[in-house]
Amino acid sequence: MECNHEVERLFIQYKNDIYNYLVYYTGSTDVEDLVQEVFIKVLTKLHRFEYKSNPKTWLFTIARHAAIDFYRKQKLKKLLSGKLFHFIISTEKTPDEALEASEDSRELYTAISKLKQAYRDVLILRGIQCLTGAETAEILGWSQTKVNVTMHRAIKQLEKELVHSAKGGIRRESFS
Predict the structure, then answer these.
(1) How many CB atoms lie within 10 A of CB 79?
(2) Where's the RNA polymerase sigma-70 region domain (predicted)?
(3) How far apart, in Å, do the first and last CA atoms of the chain sit?
(4) What secondary structure letter does DSSP report for 124?
(5) How far apart are the C-alpha atoms of 72 and 67, rounded to whole Å?
(6) Mean pLDDT over residues 77-106, rounded?
(7) How far, in Å, are 13, 32, 50, 104, 127 from residue 167 at the CA level?
(8) Which of 106, 174, 121 minimizes the C-alpha distance to 151?
């Protein structure tokens, strides 16, 4: 119970500072979910905080990591909703779109097949099967951190493979 009171005290004392920091960090005023995420993490991690440093600096560190995670998730969502995997998932295509999707699909499969096994595993599970980081970690027997790092590296390597493919592949703009 004492932990909840401490989180409540920290929330009351620092919520505006965290909110303002996240507004400036993200460039958006729509950061309430991030603020909530910060204090949920505080609730789960408070028992590890030793008060050797200022709680405010600890909170800002958590806020920064929450914002970075948010951007990573947004980039992944954009990638998954973009042209790269859209043609695999989409079923409503004109004949021209189907032909283009088929060509893009072949290029994607070829590029994925050139990647090392760990990159292929994580791209297929996260990118094509749309599993969560936790589900992917469980399947592969990895930590979520390893899944996230490997996914980031796999996407970068896949971008290189596609950009350097013989036909030019799916252009780099698909990843932006």
Answers:
(1) 19
(2) 10-75
(3) 46
(4) I
(5) 9
(6) 58
(7) 57, 45, 56, 10, 23
(8) 121
